[in-house]
Specification:
heterodimer; A: 416 residues; alpha/beta; eight-stranded mixed sheet; B: 93 residues; alpha+beta; four-stranded antiparallel sheet; two-stranded antiparallel sheet; 2 helices; 6 strands; globular
């Protein structure tokens, strides 16, 4: 079923009785070419691109709960390609280009809204660092604009420019950055993958990996064993649990990241704004709520909820740059489990076990990567060759000293 | 979260800095045969368990002691707190 304005009009006239479920609820088959473990954004986009770009549609996506119940539904919906390092920036720019064509491609309204992202700077050295980052962005084709204080005052007059501790001197702006309706990304990919023949199997937790002479030949699930030529792990947050089944340790810690939404307010924010002296980022949803977040809680956690000191810290960050939000009431808050890697960068790689592939370690930057992550992972699965723009995301990079550390924090996951 | 400090009693977790897996006190021997491999595993690989986890917390806003806290990563419940010094001295004996 193709969606269009005419279809909505006609359904409106006939009592909306013609809509059908957008994906099937199939029973698992005995064997697949590829099993993708994890029905989140990355898993569903992997399955979609496997079928669409690489012609492999005998694929199952196994999800332990319902699709989109993990981090694809627990983020702050921001998309951007404003990284610095060569191993990262071209990949995220590929992702940004894929966001720009996504809705037309899979005929689903994901509400991609490129209202721009502005990273505030508060002093001269920070401005210089942003100039350097902006140049890296321009080299990758992402585009960047450095706004001085006067220009920034025009677009965001509500900011606390003359704050005594952290005066706001300007911002590095990526006009193509913005937000996307996150659930719709999962649903759009699910619908697209399903229509190309992929089986999306919900409530099907993987309880073990079947190895035969060191080769992964399938999985054990709560609904019985399923064979596969290749098994693709894509379960950020629970990566260590899955890889433990194969006897492998990862350079990853699981941490909880909280996010918050205020009550609905009149349109005030021009786009995404981030604090340069603390950790706070905010945008305004189409319903009017301020969607914001900050640091991870900072300790290993598998609980999808955090603690109050982090909430206080995030709100202090918000008050430091836009005191006008002080009267807004918090509507809801939630937590998601992040794969925090040892250098703050992700993995899209084969594992030492033949037939077993790994995608994870996205820290808290996985949402923006959803399209390119799925595409590059599908490329690796289909061709057994790395996509050139994701060729550095390897599991053994620490052994080789080829780390990708944007923040220069070293092997301390809670600081990335 | 409240961490029950062996000397100072119950203290709020926000007074502490989190370092990570308590295995980080077991530094490999630098002159062992495969120390390159051992240091890679020591520095970069983690058990990352779901459930009970032994971890290092530093009481930065307090007496600056290092603690080994046993904590449940699903419920955030703190189950046991020891001074790192006591544990490492115990190991040497």
């Amino acid at each position: 079923m193709k969606y269009s304005a005419l279809k909505i009009f006609l359904e409106g006239l006939t009592g909306n009785k013609g809509w059908k479920p957008v994906w099937r609820e199939p029973e698992p088959k005995e064997e697949y070419d590829i099993i993708v473990i994890g029905g989140g954004g990355h898993g569903l986009s992997t399955a979609y691109y496997l079928a669409k770009e690489f012609g492999i549609s005998n694929v199952a996506v196994l999800e332990k709960g319902w699709i989109g119940s993990g981090n694809i539904g627990r983020n702050t919906t921001i998309i951007r390609s404003n990284y610095l390092l060569k191993a990262n920036q071209p990949f995220y720019e590929l992702s940004m280009q894929m966001w720009e064509n996504l809705e037309q491609e899979f005929n689903y309204n994901a509400m991609v809204s490129q209202r721009g992202i502005m990273n505030l700077y508060h002093n001269d050295p920070q401005r210089d660092a942003f100039v350097r980052r902006g140049n890296a962005m321009k080299l990758s084709g992402a585009g960047a604009v450095l706004l001085n204080e006067k220009e920034l005052r025009k677009v965001a007059p509500f900011l606390d420019f003359d704050n005594a501790r952290f005066p706001i001197k300007g911002a590095l702006c990526q006009p193509r950055g913005g937000t996307v309706r996150h659930d719709a990304v999962a649903w759009g990919y699910a619908r697209g993958a399903d229509s190309l023949g992929v089986d999306i199997i919900q409530n099907c937790e993987v309880t073990g990996l079947n190895l035969d002479k060191g080769v992964c030949v399938g999985v054990e699930t709560v609904r019985g064993p399923i064979k596969a030529k290749k098994v693709a792990i894509c379960v950020a947050g629970s990566s260590s649990n899955l890889m433990r089944m194969a006897g492998l340790k990862l350079p990853i810690e699981s941490h909880v990241l909280q996010a918050f939404v205020s009550e609905g307010l009149k349109p005030a924010l021009p786009g995404v704004i981030t604090f340069g002296a603390g950790h706070f980022y905010v945008s305004q949803s189409d319903k009017g709520g301020l969607v914001f977040g900050g640091d991870i809680d900072g300790y290993n956690s598998y609980a999808q909820r955090g603690n109050l000191p982090t909430l206080e810290d995030v709100c202090e960050g918000g008050m430091a740059i836009m005191p006008m939000i002080g009267r807004a009431r918090l509507l809801r808050m939630w937590g998601g489990i992040m794969d925090m890697s040892m250098d703050g960068s992700p993995f899209i790689d084969k594992t030492p076990i033949d037939g077993l592939y790994f995608n994870g370690g996205w820290c808290y930057g996985g949402f923006k990567a959803t399209p390119a992550s799925g595409f590059c992972y599908a490329h690796l699965l289909a061709k057994d060759a790395y996509h050139p723009k994701a060729a550095k995301f390897k599991l053994d990079r620490f052994r080789r000293g080829d780390i990708i550390d944007e923040k220069g924090q070293g092997a301390q996951p809670n600081l990335h | 979260m409240i961490i029950n400090h062996p000397y100072l009693g119950p203290r709020d977790a926000s007074e502490f800095v989190y370092k990570g897996d308590a295995n980080l006190i077991n530094r490999p021997n630098w002159d062992s045969k495969n120390s390159h491999q051992q240091f890679h595993d020591y520095l970069y690989l983690r058990d990352n368990p779901e459930g009970e986890h032994k971890e290092l917390w530093y009481h930065e806003q307090g007496d600056r002691s290092w603690l080994i806290v046993t904590r449940n990563t699903i419920t955030h419940e703190v189950l046991d707190v020891k001074l790192v010094r006591d544990v490492s001295v115990g190991k040497r004996k």
